[in-house]
Amino acid sequence: xxxxxTRFHVHIHVADLDANLRFYSQLxxxxxxxxxxxxxxxxxxxxRVNFAIxxxxxxxxxxAHLGLQAESEQSLxxxxxxxxxxxxxxxxxxxxxxxxxxxxxxxxxxxQGVQWESFHTHxxxxxxxxxxxxxxxxxxSCCGPATASCATACSVPPAAQVTSNAAACCG
Length: 171
Fold this sequence. Notes:
By secondary structure, the protein is an alpha+beta fold. It has a single domain (1-171), classed as 2,3-Dihydroxybiphenyl 1,2-Dioxygenase, domain 1, CATH 3.10.180.10. It is built from four helices and ten strands, in the order E-H-E-E-E-E-H-E-E-E-E-E-H-H. It has helices at 17-28, 73-85, 148-153, 167-170, and strands at 6-14, 34-35, 39-45, 48-55, 62-70, 89-98, 101-109, 115-124, 129-130, 136-137. The protein is globular, with a radius of gyration of 15 Å. The N and C termini lie far apart (44 Å). The model is unreliable at 135-141 and 146-171 (pLDDT under 50). Residues 6-121 form the VOC domain. Pfam families: Glyoxalase. This is ArsI/CadI family heavy metal resistance metalloenzyme.
């Protein structure tokens, strides 16, 4: 059997981080792998999922987005190629800071409007995300485009091009 190259990702916005930390820690039988004042993440092997929760300053609650975490740059490139073939990429990012991590990403939207984040993480970060100039900024409600209209408003380049950060849409 070959090693998995992706991990399913779920990110949920919550109203009460502490109450949700207690609930999900009990549900998963484990404490979060990453814990910040506004964010927590469980990297589980059974089920194989990257499950994250965060507070949302705009009050939006529930599923923020779904995604696939690639284990390698090659795996992310393959996912990106499939998304581009589906004409679904709304934003491509390299070296972005989001969710206290440095990652390369493809953001897409399915036909129902569900946001999908496909990403390969290559390091930790000390802030939730950084602005395009590289300085830390307070987190907004999203990383990546919140909606297709956000991508349009921010003049997101065509899928074949790459931007350095989505903070213009988020900040």
